[in-house]
Amino acid sequence: MFTDKSCTDFINMLASGSPTPGGGGASAMVGALGVALGSMVGNLTLGKKKYESVQLDIKVILDRANKLQNELISLVQADAEAFEPLSKAYSMSYGTDEEKNKKDTMLEEALKQACRVPLEIMEKSLEAISLHEELETKGTKIAISDVGVGVLFCKTALMGASTNVYINTKLMKDREYAGIINLQVRKMLQEGIPKADNIYITVMSKIT
Amino acid sequence: MFTDKSCTDFINMLASGSPTPGGGGASAMVGALGVALGSMVGNLTLGKKKYESVQLDIKVILDRANKLQNELISLVQADAEAFEPLSKAYSMSYGTDEEKNKKDTMLEEALKQACRVPLEIMEKSLEAISLHEELETKGTKIAISDVGVGVLFCKTALMGASTNVYINTKLMKDREYAGIINLQVRKMLQEGIPKADNIYITVMSKIT
Q1: What beta strand segments (E) does B54-171 contain?
Q2: Which of A33, A39, A49 is nearest to A143 (CA)?
Q3: How confident is the model over A100-117, as a mean pLDDT?
Q4: pLDDT digit string (tens) for B189-199?
Q5: Mind telling me how many Å the CA of B195 is from chain A's nearest CA?
Q6: In the prediction, which pLDDT does B93 show?
Q7: B14, B17, B37 ranked by CB distance to A33: nearest
Q8: What is the pTM of this model?
Q9: Are A149 and B27 inside 8 Å of each other by CB?
Q10: Which pLDDT value is given to residue A170?
Q11: CA-to-CA distance for B201 and B143, rounded, in angstroms?
Q12: Between vectors from CA B21 to CA B77 and to CA A123, what angle results, nearest 5°?
């Protein structure tokens, strides 16, 4: 598993010319780092008398963040695995029309499969942005800058994963299917980006 | 060293209530991931006949990216170490005026020290954004989406680190010094954010 490697080794593998890990898996990693910063804020709020009235909410946030973090960590690996059939389809040689058709069919299916993981990374990142929205109002003030950094990471994971959907839908022959996927992507971006920006701006207004 | 830990362990440590690693170190990590994506694009361009005319430029970019990546990786640890004196100063108890004065002096010095690492993360991230600008025009077209994701990461590292400077300058008694540092931060943000946005928009215009 890529995420069992040391951070330095993971970064070196990313830098290499090997096709995985790539931008999708790296986005999942940044999303996981973002959720973790949210959890840090939650953990620093937990048990503090000053924040007595929100303790139950913080517990719910921490529980959800923990699940999201684990899901995003497994999506790092899942993205690499989803890329394999695509890589295989690309490298298929063809001479006859029949072979060409087979390659096209395999490629189309592999492109559809390769969208699944980045779409899931987007869904998780979107949810992580909402957790930061709650943490911005309920979390301990001493860690307010970490809410800002965390939500930046989650927004970047959302946008980074979207790039990895678009690169696949662009190559699909089935334009109707591609259009449906692109619409899902646009909706998530339109919801997540302004929400994340607002949280970040609110944080910045408190520390500058 | 934090970066010798597995990715999963690092993320778990970040999520915990322990003060380090925090948002600064995590920003350095995201910057390193961003530079690594740039290197991946460079490595995929290296030795390709189609990109013969830019091979020398790519080698220079890869060399610079490799250095930047290592520098950002060491800044993860450096940020944690720079936080220690600050944490120590915060927890100093005081009863007499003399003790209070001593605490204030230590705190002021620790705040100044704690700005150094995130400022350096900003400098490295800014340089990483420029490398992506070159990769967007010279790198292999098959990895264009990774240039987009890489530059998003570098922009987020730049902004995330700025947040960690601001949280420290806000608390400084020496407002003149704080103003000088804040000006440096603003300049880097004003240079880096629009540059990164332009690169991302150009990439998106090619894949959507």
Answers
A1: none
A2: A39
A3: 94
A4: 999 999 999 99
A5: 16
A6: 86
A7: B14
A8: 0.97
A9: yes
A10: 95
A11: 15
A12: 120
Per residue in A7-63, pLDDT tens? Answer: 999 999 999 999 899 999 999 999 999 999 999 999 999 999 999 999 999 999 999
Does the pLDDT at position A94 exceed 90?
A: no
Of A32, A44, A182, which is closest to B17 when you measure between CB atoms?
Answer: A44
**Is B145:B137 a contact under the CB 8 Å cutoff?**
no
Q: Is B115 helix (H, G, I), strand (E, B) or coil?
A: helix
Q: Quick one: DSSP state of residue A48?
A: -
* Residue where the block lists tokens 């919801």: A191
Token pair in block for residue B120: 């350096």
Interface contact A10-B7, CB threshold 8 A: yes
Phi, psi for A20 (deg, rounded to 5): -130, 150
Q: Are B79 and B117 in contact (CB under 8 A)?
A: yes
* Low-confidence residues of chain B: pLDDT under 70: none
Residue in the structure block whose two tokens are 């620093």:
A44
CA distance A127 to A124: 5
CB contact under 8 A, B156 and A32: no
Largest CA distance in chain A: 74
Which residues in chain A have their CB less than 8 angstroms from residue B69's CB? 11, 15
